[in-house]
Specification:
The complex is a heterodimer of chains A (156) and B (266).
Chain A: H1 6-136, H2 146-155
Helix pairs in contact in A: 1-2
Chain B: H1 9-17, E1 22-23, E2 30-31, H2 32-54, H3 63-82, H4 90-106, H5 114-125, H6 143-175, H7 185-224, H8 229-263
Antiparallel strand pairs in B: 1-2
Helix pairs in contact in B: 1-7, 2-4, 3-4, 4-8, 6-7, 6-8, 7-8
Classes of the chains: A mainly alpha (156), B mainly alpha (266).
Chain lengths: 156, 266
């Protein structure tokens, strides 16, 4: 094979191509690739983080939901208790009112009866006096015998 | 095919295909075809890659950018795996070697008569004797090309050896290895110098030999076996399709390995 000046030409071309590649081709291409790799890595990391966050939020939501259910149950329980209490109270009150009204009625009745009885006694006394007056025909002084009459009234 | 009616038809045909279009005398002969094709292919490489590099986006890449990035990633990966050190020159150098050699090797797959016949036609039209218009289209079948690449790598090996280890360290590697006894230094020196010279030589000759042989077989198939050349061409081209990227890869890989050795301080 004949080695000749072509070697020099090829060498110069080679040096130029390497220089050009080093200066203008490699850095932007490799930079773009590395930047994209970084971007993808960041994206993956972010998505992983988001997944974790989602998991956490789900757990939190479940806990909150459970709490809320418990609270609701407690409130309902309380309300039921309160309801029973109100009903009891109302029943008690009604019963007490009932008793009171009954007692009042009885007292009224008693008083009325007493009064009627007293009136009757009075009238009986008057009637007795009038009867006696008629029978004795003025022989008996009403005033003089008032104490006897009163005693009679008491005995009735 | 080429000349007819002559006694040396086949031989002449092969000879014609293996001769460079040259200008000048003696050492100052320029293989115009080798230079033109290699520079053209080198320009194809740097301009296409530059066009991608200029509008390279970090976002979703286009299809061509994907292809270019695949090659860049592949070269970057090879460099990362083999070269342990920090040198911004190694990766671009490797990319240039790989792509340039690959493109030059691929010229081998263009049917052997296409471009030479076209050149002969043009030459004939311009008034030259068509039998003396030569065109060798595969630059890597010219030892000048492969040797230029190998010497470029060799110069870098020497440069970084001296830069990293100092001149003393570099020389010490030559004489104090593998037998570290003063009375065998002369023997070491002969051994290591041969080993050192063998590196660029093997680089250049491996690529040249593979491609030259491949080209020669294409020429023989075209020149010798008549109509049977059609399946034979196909089979050899399919086989050669493996050789082409493999040789480009080997050249790149060995360059990285040699430069990596140059950077290692013992």
């Amino acid at each position: 094979m004949n080695i000749n000046a072509t070697l020099l030409g090829e060498l110069i071309a080679f040096i130029f191509f390497v220089w050009f590649t080093m200066k203008y081709v490699w850095p932007p291409l490799n930079g773009a690739i590395e930047d994209r790799q970084k971007k993808i890595a960041d994206g993956l990391e972010a998505s992983e983080q988001a997944e974790k966050d989602l998991e956490l939020a789900k757990k939190e939501a479940a806990v909150k939901l459970k709490e809320a259910k418990e609270q609701a149950a407690a409130i309902i329980e309380q309300a039921k208790k309160r309801e029973a209490q109100i009903i009891d109270e109302a029943a008690d009150k009604a019963r007490a009112e009932n008793d009171k009204i009954l007692a009042q009625g009885q007292a009224d009745l008693e008083a009325e009866r007493n009064r009627a009885r007293a009136e009757l006694r009075q009238q009986v006394a008057v009637l007795a006096v009038a009867g006696a007056e008629k029978i004795l025909a003025r022989s008996i002084d009403a005033k003089a015998h008032a104490d006897i009459l009163d005693q009679l009234v008491e005995e009735l | 095919m080429a000349a007819n009616g002559e006694a040396l038809t086949t031989q002449g045909y092969i000879q014609h295909h293996l001769t460079n279009a040259s200008v000048g005398e003696g050492f100052w002969t320029w293989h115009v075809d080798t230079l033109a094709w290699s520079v053209l292919l080198g320009l194809v490489f740097i301009l296409s890659f530059r066009s991608v590099a200029k509008k390279a986006t970090v976002g979703v890449p286009g299809k061509f950018q994907c292809v270019v990035e695949m090659i860049v990633e592949f070269v970057a990966g090879s460099v990362r795996d083999t070269f342990h050190g920090k040198n911004p020159l190694i990766a671009p150098l490797s990319l240039t070697i790989f792509m340039w050699v690959l493109l030059m090797n691929f010229m081998d797959l263009i049917p052997v008569d296409f471009l030479p016949s076209f050149a002969q036609f043009i030459g004939g039209q311009l008034g030259y004797d068509p039998h003396h218009v030569y065109m060798k289209v595969v630059p890597t079948t010219d030892l000048n090309t492969t040797l230029a690449l190998a010497l470029g790598v060799f110069a870098l090996m020497i440069y970084y050896s001296i830069k990293i280890k100092g001149l003393g360290g570099f020389l010490k590697e030559l004489y104090a290895h593998p037998f570290n006894t003063p009375w065998l230094y002369w023997f070491n020196f002969i051994l290591e110098t041969i080993a050192l010279i063998a590196k660029p030589m093997s680089l250049a000759l491996r690529l040249f030999g593979n491609l030259y042989a491949g080209e020669l077989i294409f020429i023989l198939i075209a020149g010798l076996i008549g109509i049977w050349q059609l399946p034979a061409h196909f089979i050899w081209a399919a086989f050669h399709l493996l050789v082409i990227p493999l040789q480009a890869f080997i050249f790149m890989m060995l360059s990285i390995v040699y430069l990596s050795l140059a950077h290692e301080d013992h």
